[in-house]
Here is the input.
Amino acid sequence: MKEIENHINKNVQNKAEKVVEKLQKANCDFLEVGRELMAYHPDVWKELEWKKDYAQIDIKPDVTVEVIHRGIIN
Here is the structure.
């Protein structure tokens, strides 16, 4: 089971990284990173020009997969 979890985790991790990369290239803050910064890190938010800086910040998704059920789904 652990081997399957690791395989799925790597696959989902790669996809998450590609999604974040595409969002940043499109300058689309769909994940609302800016809103989080504004709410919880206002000093950092004030230093940024969000529309220009968003595409340049380093966003690293961290995915963890846990298989909780197994079997055939009908």
